[in-house]
Design goal:
By secondary structure, this protein is an all-alpha fold. It has helices at residues 4-37, 43-69.
């Protein structure tokens, strides 16, 4: 008979593997549909998104630092 601790660890590992499998399947679907139906971006649109992403990443890093400090 398996001990309670072993069953608990085994259950945790199975849950982790299921979550990892679902994440992998989701990423695979995004790559598949992105390559199949995605359109290339214009240079102007790419520059606009790049500017916004830089600002958002800076804001998120700053917010994370504030959260850690307080």
């Amino acid at each position: 008979m398996l001990s309670f601790r072993y069953r608990k660890i085994s259950n945790f590992i199975m849950t982790l593997l299921i979550i990892l499998g679902l994440v992998f399947a989701g990423v695979a679907l995004m790559v598949f549909f992105g390559e199949r139906y995605g359109k290339p971006m214009d240079v102007e649109q790419q520059a606009k998104y790049s500017k916004w992403i830089r600002i958002l990443v800076f804001a998120l890093i700053f917010a994370a630092l504030l959260k850690m400090m307080f």
